[in-house]
């Protein structure tokens, strides 16, 4: 139940963030990473990996080495 609520909240936050003109890519990477964590906890590893990869790609583009190391 808690995972479902968290999943909806993260998905909604990601959707809203991506609709903004001034999309904060760093925040997007954090949300994607959180979704990766969530799916990992639910044993949905292939889905988890997709979100981690998206977060890592953003961190690399932004040259966020400290954040990329935590993904």
Uncertain residue segments? none
| SSE pattern | HHHH
Main sheet properties: none
Residue share in helix: over 70%
What is the overall pLDDT average? 89
Number of helix segments? 4
Task: Offer a few descriptive terms.
flat; 0% strand; 4 helices; mainly alpha; 71 residues
Folded structure, characterized:
The protein is mainly alpha-helical. It is 80% helix and 0% strand. The protein contains four helices and no strands. Helix 1 packs antiparallel against helix 2. The longest helix has 18 residues. The protein starts with a helix and ends with a helix. The model has no long low-confidence stretch (mean pLDDT 89).
What is the compact description of this entry?
With 71 residues, the chain is mainly α. The chain is built from four helices and no strands. α2 (25-41) runs antiparallel to α3 (45-62).
Would you spell out the secondary-structure blueprint of this structure?
Layout: H1 2-19, H2 25-41, H3 45-62, H4 65-68
Helix pairs in contact: 1-2, 2-3
